[in-house]
Each structure stands twice: as structure tokens, then as C-alpha cells.
Amino acid sequence: MAVNDTGLPTLPALPDTAADAVLASGLVEELSYAFGGPFHFLLPDAFDTNLEAMRAALEEAGVDGVVYYAKKANKAAVWIERCAAGGAGVDVASLGELREALGHGVRGENIVVTGPAKGEDLLTLAVQQGALIAVDALDELDNLISAALAGRVRPARLLLRCLPPAQPHSRFGMNGAELAIAMDRCVRAGDAVRMEGFSFHLSGYAVQPRADLAGHLVELCLKARVLGLEASRISIGGGLAVSYTDADTWHTFLGEQNSGHYHAGKSFSTGDFYPYHSPAAGAGALRALLAARPEGHGESLAELLREAGVVVLMEPGRALLDRAGATVFRIQGVKDRDGYQLLTVDGTSLSLSEQWFNSEYLPDPYLLSRSPDASTGTYPAAVGAATCLESDMLTWRKIPFPRQPRTGDLLVYPNTAGYQMDSNESPFHDLALPPKVVIDHTERPRPRWRLDRHFG
User: Fold this and answer.
1) What is the distance, to the nearest Å, from the Cα of residue 312 to the centroid of all Cα atoms in its chain?
2) pLDDT in tens, 76-103
3) 0.90 cut: is pTM over it?
4) CA nearest 334: which of 277, 384, 407, 385?
5) What pairing do the DSSP bridges indicate for beta strands 65-70 and 366-368?
6) Residue pair 456/61 in contact by the 8 Å Cβ criterion
7) DSSP string, 245-299
8) 3-class DSSP assignment, residue 79
9) Domains identified in the chain and CATH numbers
10) Coil, helix or strand at residue 388
11) 302/64 Cα distance (integer angstroms)
């Protein structure tokens, strides 16, 4: 149910048998004791499952495609290791991310470099390693051509990024006139560059606008080929939604929630919430995208891609990390308020990063009680952080827990691997950054673990 007898809305996460097995094993309590603070646990088998599901969607549609993991979604090295082992690509946007991907075994030709206004060091290394570079502006194209000519090791592989017509104020991409100039410069650069196609950066999770723009990029590829350019690939970016809960729960929550359900009367615009349910999510969203008919075309996107001989590239982050980890905090203080409790945990909201988007992470945390009692009922509580900031709240919402939260109990926030764990991390107050623990379930009665091998 989305609303209980207190009138407080809940948002339970979808069942996750792998995470449930970790919680039932007792390992979480041991790790909390060992680290003496919050930590994240990672479930890499989920990453593999999500990757294979996307590849299956491409195969079912008869479309040639490449999946690049958007590294910004989570800094852990284990995802890069999985990409290297499984032949997947990696999407990077900085020199550090590029070095990290190369250092964990991903071949340069399997890396795409995105982000705006890339520095000289990043462009130079990307050209040297044969990475594909999404060019965002004319001056960046000039810098890239210069880097390729200076090195003369291999041609610079590039995509030209298109400014979405529906989002003309986006700071990413080039308009039609700029793209025409860019294509001309690629022709003039000759063997110094390989212009492999086009890309875009599109905000939001709606399928049809992404399909419309992808169809436009296919048309651009055909025009570029007339100029003698290769133009055989398009990148549709990310934007494959993740469902954290079911449809009824999500829509009931949106209809019921109000400022009275939050600590200090906090209010949020529902438009600022991530869409915690999507009718087409992950590989399902990719299937819907390939089946959609781009505006002005009578055929599906998959048919357009096949007929034009265009390979589709994608850069999912959150969708590859669905059910791939969780975040654990220990309660170190309990304070009574009018009708609810205010819990303080041993970490900060910087390790649960939805506040970055003027929102909060809504899936209900699990309460693991050190000494569970037999009492039943509903015990509302909001969750604050161990800092001196009023605004540092992990959960403003009054969560209706089924047991009384106590000092020493653990709160486990589910499905946090995608963007929540480390987008905002900071050693504020000299608090240690939560470590990441890789969980291995392979043919063992009890899961084993190791620390992630991130270089940073």
C-alpha cells in the first residue's frame, strides 16, 4: 500500500532478491561494525544482467548497437572491470575518468569521450588511444584537428553533437548552421579525422522526443555521406528510465503527499522528483525507443537504422546500475518531535545525492534493528545527517517504519548505485567517504566481499 493507517505515504522499492539475500545474511551488520561508518554495497551481477538485457533488445530489433556505460553514474571500478570483461564500452567526460577506464582494462576504441569544452590533455590522450570523441562546438573541433595533426599517430575519431531543436537553450551541441560548418571542416581535414556520425544530449526520459531526434541524426548521416564522410553511427545518449516502484504506489504517492508529511513542513514540487516508476524502463525503454516512429517518418527507428546501415550507440548510467547496490547508515541519535522522531545517522546526505536536484531520494529505507522487539505499529521518522547544517537531511519525509527505530539500528537505502552514492560525496567535517564493498554471491552459502579497486 502507498498510504498506511497514519496517512503518511510510503514508497516501497520493488523486490530485489539479491539485495534481500545480503540483508538476510548478517553481513551488513558486520560491515557496519568493521567500517565504523556508512558504506555502500555493490551487486555487480545486476550490472551484467542489465547489460545483457539491452544487448538482447538490440538483437531483437535487428539493430547493430554498442552500449557504453556512463561512468559519471558511479565512480566504482567494478563497473569498468565488468565492461572490460564483457566487451562493453565506457562513456567518460574527464581526463581522470579516461585514465581510470584505460587503467582497468577498457580498450581506447571502446571509450567515448563526452562532456563540453574538453581540455587539450583530454583530447590528446583520447586521440592517442583511439577513443571516439563527441565534439560539442566548432572551437573544440579545431582543437581536436590540431591535436590529431600534432600527434600524427592516428586519425581523430569523432561524432558531431547536435543541439536538440526542442531544447534550443541547452548548452550542449551545435545548431544546423554550425553543423554544416563542422562537416565542411571535417572534409577539409582529410585523413586527420574520421567523422563517424552524430550525437545529442537530451534531457528527460520521454521516448518519442529521443526517437524523433535519433531519426533526424540518421538523416544527417545520409547528408554527410554525400560529402564523403563516413557518418555510420549515431549516439542517443542515456535517458533510459529506471522503475524503483510499481505504478499504483507511485501515482498514489504523488496524489497523497503534501508538506505535512515532511519534517519542518518541507515541500517539494512533484515535477522535481525523479519518475520513480516508468511504464518503459531499462531495456524495455530501449525496445520502446527502437519501435517508435520518428516524426516525419512512416517507419520505426529500428527500420531507419537498418536501412541506412547506421549503428546506434547509447550511454546509459542509471539503467545499467538498476538494483546494483544499496547504501547503509547507522542511527546514532533519536530525537522526539510532535508525532514523529528525528533520526541522526553516522553520515551525510552528500552520500545520498538526490538533494543535488532540489529533491530527495524517495524509496523507503529498510530498518535493520539490532534488538527487534515484538511490538507492532507505525513509527514515523525523518532522517538527518551528522553535520551542523539544518538542510542536511537524508530524508525529509516522515517514513512510517513498522518498528521503533533505535540508536544502533541500521538504515539501508535500496537501489542507490545509480547517481546516489558518490555524485556529491565530500569529506565535510572530516568525515570519511563511505567505502564501496563489492558483494560476490557465486556458489556460496553466504556472500563474500571485497573493497572496490577505484584508484581515486
Assistant:
1) 19
2) 999 999 999 999 999 999 999 999 999 9
3) yes
4) 407
5) unpaired
6) no
7) S-HHHHHHHHHH--GGGBGGG----GGGS--S--SS-THHHHHHHHHS--TT-SS
8) helix
9) 17-43+323-451 (2.40.37.10), 45-243+278-317 (3.20.20.10)
10) coil
11) 9
